[in-house]
Amino acid sequence: xxxxxxxxxxxxxxxxxxxxxxxxxxxxxxxxxxxxxxxxxxxxxxxxxxxxxxxxxxxxxxxxxxxxxxxxxxxxxxxxxxxxxxxxxxxxxxxxxxxxxxxxxxxxxxxxxxxxxxxxxxxxxxxxxxxxxxxxxxxxxxxxxxxxxxxxxxxxxxxxxxxxxxxxxxxxxxxxxxxxxxxxxxxxxxxxxxxxxxxxxxxxxxxxxxxxxxxxxxxxxxxxxxxxxxxxxxxxxxxxxxxxxxxxxxxxxxxxxxxxxxxxxxxxxxxxxxxxxxxxxxxxxxxxxxxxxxxxxxxxxxxxxxxxxxxxxxxxxxxxxxxxxxxxxxxxxxxxxxxxxxxxxxxxxxxxxxxxxxxxxxxxxxxxxxxxxxxxxxxxxxxxxxxxxxxxxxxxxxxxxxxxxxxxxxxxxxxxxxxxxxxxxxxxxxxxxxxxxxxxxxxxxxxxxxxxxxxxxxxxxxxxxxxxxxxxxxxxxxxxxxxxxxxxxxxxxxxxxxxxxxxxxxxxxxxxxxxxxx
Length: 518
Known about the structure:
The protein is of the alpha+beta class.
């Protein structure tokens, strides 16, 4: 009978006396090891001395079958198990793999597969595959090789599947992060481009709609200590430093302009009044509150810094320092309409005319169209401007002379020599007598260059036979009688003058005062 049939067959029982004799014979146990590969390691070796085949079979029970069965299934053509073949072909290596592993690693007392199973329970199956692969070929049985190969193949697919699943997710996360960063940079760049043409200012509509910046970003960046500032409702300054007067003026225009329009075109909002005149360099014109014209019947709430005024007479606009503003004549009229102090109205209107921003007749026409001549302070200021007065000191001198019997002078007349050369423009001039009154303020005439220019102008006038009386604004205000005495004396002395002055006034005539009803 075939020995394999006698050994592995299930319907032929072995002889009952053989196990008893095997216990007394030193040779029989070897034959017992060759008869059944699975029984001997289980009954004779402790748990930590089992061969690699038994350990691998015990460590991977989830596979549902032993490594011997898979090896037998994988190679049915050989007719015998890999265990029997290894035992027959290599009698020198009949010692168990457990004994050799124990002798080689006495300090560990466990095979590598057992240690890997104990240290990392979650990775038992991969550890078996690595231990089987790492062992030399002569220390492995065919069953262990088959088990390790199957185990490694079983675990390779989940790892590949996991890497395949996780990699697209990580790529999507990185792509989303890069896209968000690029979108944030593009929105901030759009906001910067918008603010550059608006003196680092932007409206909320421009930031959210045009630049695409979220409202939460605007709120976080305008917190105390943030890079942006909130100047007015819905108006933001995109810088950390304090705003200057130009930025505050433009912020008022941005606040009053319609959200959907270009705030710099000057069609829906324009700066006017004192703030517009201050941009032109008019002294004593206040920067705040900023008066802004809007088209009626549109209404807008004002604040301490901005005063919107609806109007049905929309004016022509100009751009001053990048800010849409009304023309100086309209700005002067709007300032006079909202100012209360008569001296301030007189001074500002006089400076506007003196600086050459408008003609007195044009200003009078604008004041009449605005129905402002009914106010006494504005009416008197307009009369003085038509008479040639260009400053408050001159207006005070005019009031003082009007109360006397002295002749009426020409105010700010331009004098020329007979050959047409410009000579000077004294504050007051009596052409028949050849007497001039010069009001020299310390603010404009007492610097080194201004003082020299004043002396040269006086020498030119005197060289042409004109007598000059010099005074300061404080003299006109505090000691007007002394100034009047000097003028009266000069006017009297020049009555029988044999040599009249050679200066001739041109382009100037004495203008009558306004009637009280105008």
